[in-house]
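Hey L., structure's done. Input below.
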Amino acid sequence: LRQEQDFLQFQKEFYVSGSKYLLLDFVKGSGQLKYKNRVLKSFKFTPAFKVPAQAVQPGAVTLTRKIQTSGGWRSLKFGGALVIQMKSKAARREDRRVPRITVSRSDMASLFYALEEGSRAYVVR
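Output:
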């Protein structure tokens, strides 16, 4: 019940502020980029490096860093809680303790340009 109340409070906060945010459902392996109560983009993701869904704590996380290399590789880092990265054969992994999920190149492009540092995401399990 507490998690559901937190989630509803999170949605209410972003409906009022008019900011974009992410919803990540680890059970379904899907996510949504939302603005107010509208879904801007739905996408599928897979855990990278066989990360169990239990490794990611449910709740709100904040985007702390956007990474883009000269080769076009992109990732979004949500503190020490989660990293979203592009699918690639040579996936990068600096810290093995941080859970990672991978999305397609086109989905990552959409997320990368839609979100700014400080944007929030809510992890549902």
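The radius of gyration is 14 Å. The beta strands are 20-25, 30-35, 38-44, 46-47, 59-62, 65-68, 74-78, 82-86, 100-103, 120-124.

-- N.
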